Hints:
Blueprint: E1 2-8, E2 12-22, E3 31-35, E4 39-44, H1 51-69, E5 76-77, E6 82-97, E7 100-102, E8 111-128
Parallel strand pairs: 2-4
Antiparallel strand pairs: 1-8, 2-8, 3-4, 5-6, 6-7, 6-8
Amino acid sequence: MSIQRERNFETREASFSCEVRFDEDLPHGPHVEGTHAGGFRASVPPAGATWGLIAQLVAKAHQAEHDQFWGNGEMRKREGGFTVAHHSTVTPVRVLHKGGPAPSDNPAKEGSCTVVVSVAEVEKAEQQVCCTML
């Protein structure tokens, strides 16, 4: 017999520093490097890059960090007969540039900005229980 439960954590917002760099030589397209702890660096083309694109790139990179940390949502064995899966969904919220909101459809500018993302987390757990009746 097993007991299953699902727990939704409160959705929270997180802010990350991001340095925007223009680069005309991007054979694999726009991309982000870095981590949430040290900040992100977005490399985008000088023409056509928007603040919305910057927010999407940072959210995708932070999603990849969550996926790696939590084992891509796979069930993992824990003590006490538990198996637990943790899944996160990271979505872009807004970009702040020079102290104010940057409209997502406006052209991005080189330099520093802050990207705000929303993180929703769900944990699923299952415990195998066994009883002996005498």
